[in-house]
Input
Amino acid sequence: MTMLAGKTAVVTGAAGPAALAVVRGLLEDGAQVALVDPDAMRLDSLVRFLRGTTVAVPCDSGDADAVREAQQKIEKVLGPVDILVNAVEAPPASRIEATDPAQWRRITAAHLDSAFYWSRAVIPAMRKRGAGRIVNVLSLAAKSAGADSGAALAAAHGGLAALTFALARETAAQGITVNAVAAGAMEGSSAIEPLNEAQRRQLLASIPVGRFCKPEEFAYAVRFLASPLAAFITGEILDVNGGVQMD
Output
């Protein structure tokens, strides 16, 4: 399937398992993809094994100047950005008492500030072309009040949900759609890997479908929202959580 042939996509947090699955999916759909992540060595090792047109762009997306520089580099190599996927991976849970101001800022910068900076960077050109796709990746914490993820992450992703709605309304008339995917427990994620067997069983017991999400399943949801098939969908949060959160 090449429904995204000729399109340029940016995926942030690209070294994480979920975002990497999105990268592979977008490449399968014919897009050329810029992988953005602070981990330069990890990015370099990944792009060697990807099939399709890619560029690795090390960048701290929580830094506005770094985002501007990264965007300029991407456009020089791949051209204007048609698709933006903000997919920074959620960190392990931390209770409010254990969250110091520096950690609070790191979490909000990584998840909320980065999506704002990247959206602000790519929307003007999307407006001029009359088309664009932005997909924000949310933690389930955005809807569950951070019961399993901590207050900082819940606040950052609640803000990211609100940003999704605000940008969707602001840009709809220019042919830009802005949506989000709210992901549940995912195989290989930093929230699952540290768990022991007992903790895994307890978590699985809370998921109605009885298993963790596969990164490829999550990626299909993002691919749909980034595709021409979703041209009439904007301001939507799509749950991919196995029935944990139903609305």
About this structure: The beta strands are 8-12, 32-37, 54-58, 83-86, 132-139, 176-183, 237-240. The first strand starts at residue 8 and ends at 12. The chain has a mean pLDDT of 90.
